[in-house]
Amino acid sequence: MRSLPYNNLKTIVQTEDHVVINIEWMHHARVIRIGKDGKRPAHPGDWYNIYGGDSVAWWEGDTLVVDTTNIRDWPGSARPGVHVVERFTPVQDKGLVYRYTVTDPDYTAPYTGELMWPRTDAFNYEFACHEGNYSMGGMLRGARVLEQDWLEANGGGGKQASH
């Protein structure tokens, strides 16, 4: 959920009982259960630990509060005692203020950060290497030139149709 120089868009979709935050970088989708009537849903037991943790949420006014526990290192084992609380607060038409507090037994005290998630109409692209897609036309044209050169050098007849 960090701020990156590229692939930094997030798409948020909310249903009656879930919020999904799709993060452009690595195409990671967080599925977060929302409590009903302002109630906080329960986390499963410590046996349930996954990469990214188990996230539950509830509304405090217009702020969505997300509580995450049962976090697993990737790849690795469970991280007992790691706890993250995130707050998503809208700012008029500007976007969301994203505030997080991390409690981690590897540190002497919890730490907090805050950043703005600006609203945008930009498209959230699939996280993939698009360079090959953009250069595909050039690679294919170059291959056709090489094929034509080979045909002409080896008596292969007339010119190939170009596309």
Could you explain how this protein is built, in words?
With 163 residues, this protein is mostly beta strands. It folds into two domains: 10-118, no CATH class; 129-163. It is 14% helix and 38% strand. The protein is built from one helix and ten strands; from the N terminus they run ββββββββββα. The chain has one helix at residues 131-153; strands at residues 10-14, 18-23, 28-34, 50-51, 54-60, 63-69, 71-72, 83-91, 95-103, 111-118. Strands 1-2-3-5-6-8-9-10 form an eight-stranded mixed sheet, with no helix packed on it. A two-stranded parallel sheet has the order 4-7. The longest helix is centred in the last third of the chain and has 23 residues, at 131-153. It is elongated, with a radius of gyration of 24 Å. The mean pLDDT is 85.
List the helices and strands and how they pair.
Blueprint: E1 10-14, E2 18-23, E3 28-34, E4 50-51, E5 54-60, E6 63-69, E7 71-72, E8 83-91, E9 95-103, E10 111-118, H1 131-153
Summary, kept brief:
By secondary structure, the protein is mainly beta. Helices cover 14% and strands 38% of the residues.
